Known about the structure:
Radius of gyration: 15 Å
Helix content: over 70%
Low-confidence stretches: none
Order of helices and strands: HHHH
Number of strands: 0
Largest sheet: none
Strand content: under 5%
Structural class: mainly alpha
Shape: elongated
Amino acid sequence: MASSAVQVIQRIIAAVFGGYVLAAAVSACLSYVMPMSRVEATLTGMLVSFLLYVAVVMWVFAVKSLKRMWWQLGSATVVFGALAVLLSPQLVQP
Length: 94
């Protein structure tokens, strides 16, 4: 088991960088799927990403298992990142 200081450092790294990447991926996905103008969808996605980022930071420090936290954060990031790439207009247009 990792020492307490290492666990805190891992959680800080996950909160700062993992939360940012997940929030950016979710924001991109929302901007592609929202049924409104592109500007409004982008702004709405960004507003949601701020709330998500705060929620991820709190969740990272609330979860007990570091392994579970890294697995769930990584899985969600990969899923939303892949969706953002698949939904991007460059791939949809011929």
